[in-house]
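Example 9 (inverse folding). The structure is encoded as follows.
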């Protein structure tokens, strides 16, 4: 330990006598540490901590491609979603979603929050579990008015973890939505996993997405939706 302290004092004296070299050394260390930290963060997120979904390697996002129009990636429409649901042979389950920013009123000061409108199948695809109440059901995909699920973060931050929130009505953009459940703390979905046309960063609240009965024939120009699917067993991504 005595020799180590002597070496340390000697090194500090040399650094103090050469401020230019000291600056270069410090900057080199900073760049090296920063680069290693960034690489580890990516590796930790993608390799050490994979997405918290059942069999995430079998999940897929579906996009449109229009090479003739110079569009390498575009959002599909509800009509195209229903076409794929009925005609594909490679997916065992599919979902349709759309992201929006909405204004929540009636819970203190008005709050601008991110909302995801989605079919009930998305929550099953991602293995979501309710902490309170229930998830969306197939009936919610056609029933109006739409209903709402709160994420754990919004339930805690804006509703003070109220255990009686299920069954109450909340107001979004001036419209009432009945709360049917609160998602578990572990539920995770953001704009990096599902890039929505509304460019929402995180899904604070989940709303049901009832499709019109004539969506397959009439809702084809509204190409602003996200499609997620799960591959059938034995089907490869290729």
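The amino acid assigned to each position is listed next.
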């Amino acid at each position: 330990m005595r020799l180590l302290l002597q070496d340390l004092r000697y090194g500090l004296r040399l650094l103090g006598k050469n401020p230019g070299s000291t600056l270069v050394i410090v900057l080199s260390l900073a760049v090296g540490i920063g680069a290693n930290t960034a690489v580890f963060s990516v590796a930790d997120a993608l390799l050490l901590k994979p997405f918290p979904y059942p069999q995430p390697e079998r999940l897929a996002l579906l996009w449109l491609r229009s090479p003739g129009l110079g569009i390498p990636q575009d959002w599909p429409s509800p009509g195209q979603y229903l076409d794929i649901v009925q005609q594909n042979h490679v997916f065992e389950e599919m979902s349709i979603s759309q992201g929006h920013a909405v204004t929540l009123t009636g819970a203190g000061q008005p709050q601008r929050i991110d909302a995801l409108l989605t079919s009930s199948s998305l929550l099953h695809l991602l293995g979501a579990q309710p902490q309170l109440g229930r998830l969306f059901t197939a009936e919610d995909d056609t029933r109006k008015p739409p209903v709402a699920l709160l994420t754990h973060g919004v339930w805690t931050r804006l509703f003070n973890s109220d255990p009686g929130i299920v069954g109450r009505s909340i107001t979004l953009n001036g419209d009432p939505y009945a709360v049917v459940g609160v998602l578990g703390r572990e539920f995770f979905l953001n704009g990096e996993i599902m890039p929505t046309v509304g460019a929402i960063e995180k899904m604070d609240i989940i709303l049901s997405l009832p499709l019109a009965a004539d969506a397959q024939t009439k809702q084809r120009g509204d190409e602003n939706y996200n499609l997620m699917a799960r591959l059938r067993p034995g089907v490869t991504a290729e």
